[in-house]
Amino acid sequence: MSAVVISGTGLYQPPHTITNAELVQAFNAYVDLQNAQNAAQIEAGEREPLAHSSVEFIEKASGIKQRYVMDKSGVLDPHRMYPRFTPRADDELSLMAEIAVDACHKAMAAAGKKPEDIDAVICGASNMQRAYPAVAVEIQQALGINGYAFDMNVACSTATFAMEQAVNALRAGSAKCVLVVNPEITSAHQEWRDRDCHFIFGDVATASVVELAETATSADQWEVLGTKLATQFSNNIRNNFGFMNRCEDTDPNARDKTFRQEGRKVFKEVVPIAAAHIESHLAALSVEPTAVRRYWLHQANQSMNQLVVKRLIGGEAGADVAPLILDEYANTSSAGVVIAFHKHHADMAKGDVGVLCSFGAGYSVGSVVIRKR
Ligand code: COA
Q1: Which residues are catalytic?
Q2: Which long-range contacts (CB under 8 A, 24 or more apart) does 161-165 make?
Q3: Fold entry, domain 222-372
Q4: pLDDT surpasses 90 at 192
Q5: pLDDT confidence of 178, banded at 50, 70, 90?
Q6: pTM for this structure?
Q7: What does DSSP assign to residue 94?
């Protein structure tokens, strides 16, 4: 089999930061407004008052300290509680494509690739800006790339699932250099008005160049030793927004049309799935979990990641073994593993093995085992 490498990554970081203190202040103002508006019903015992959020809870429960967003003012407006974006004409680059293109330029520069060197673009994200044409094709056009492009969505696991599609295309000969891009504008499907999850997400875009080793010229190459994907249906992370909403005559602003989850259940069920998945993947490659230099895990919850690694290596996972970026970025859905890799691999030596592993809605879990060349 031809060797395939990841030869460059790129990161787009949105212009605005929201700290937990700012987020909680806006959320609590929203709660106070709602409770004042519903005071009579609350007084009559017909409705429960909404409860305040707290910075302490957020940091303890998740490890998240801040997040980056494309628009801050709309999210922090207690009368609105979601971002405010200006509609763009059909002949303008869409917002998702814009941030994707920025990340792609950086990944291409890191890998030393020009548009003519690339012949496939896979755009993977947990939501697409529109039904069609595919955002990937818009990105392809904006970058001046020939070949083909398509969108895909496996929620938080999309990056690793897309990397496997890239590896397969390279090995099958249908592409020679693939750009995998993950533009995540999670702020638009996040439920900023729900105390259980209002702190979870952040916006970002990542891109990765995946190519045949024989064409790679980058000084920083990571050979893909294997990829492994698995899914198992669960309703514990769900969003019912979709093209049939109109026909169902349902409220487009109803709670089920944005992100919702049973966080506790997700935590309990996904940790063992992810740990067993990585263990069996490594066993198939004859790599001991303790021989892995670094785990770049999905960035949703600090304790979840610590537990996954503890199950694998039997001890505490320090930041050196399983780096965290969620304190700064929050959960950026599919992009989290790529940010972790992007920011935390420069210190690794030739021959070091690392595992990218994402997990999330579906349930889905994907792992990519790589070795520094
Ligand atoms: N501020 C203050 N208190 C809050 C709160 C908030 N924002 N949100 C919930 N609480 C309270 C709850 O009401 C509950 O109170 P109770 O014990 O009196 O009933 C308590 O805190 C614990 O709530 P719980 O929902 O069980 O919290 P948790 O410890 O499970 O943490 C998550 C919540 C979401 C951080 C955590 O479950 C998680 O990260 N799960 C995995 C999620 C994941 O990976 N999702 C993938 C998304 S793609």
Answers
A1: 156
A2: 161/124, 161/229, 161/364, 161/366, 162/122, 162/124, 162/334, 163/6, 163/208, 163/210, 163/224, 163/227, 163/356, 163/366, 163/368, 164/227, 164/228, 164/229, 164/366, 164/368, 165/122
A3: Peroxisomal Thiolase; Chain A, domain 1 (3.40.47)
A4: yes
A5: very high
A6: 0.97
A7: P
Domain spans, the chain: 222-372
Tell me which residue of 301, 333, 329, 300 sits closest to 126, measured CA to CA. Answer: 333
Measured by CA distance, the residue closest to atom 14 of ligand 1 is 196
pLDDT over threshold 90, residue 133: yes
**β-bridge mates for residue 353, sequence order:** 371
Cα–Cα distance between 189 and 193 in angstroms, integer?
11
Ligand 1 site: residues with CB under 6 angstroms? Answer: 53-54, 57-58, 61-62, 156, 195-196, 237, 261, 263-264, 266-267, 300-301, 304, 331, 360-361
Q: From the alpha carbon of 270, which atom of ligand 1 is closest?
A: 44
Partnered with residue 181 across adjacent β-strands are: 123, 207
At 317 the pLDDT is 78
Query: 41 CA to middle of ligand 1, Å?
Result: 27
**Atom 6 of ligand 1, residue of closest alpha carbon:** 53
Query: How close is the Cα of 95 to the center of ligand 1, in Å?
Result: 31
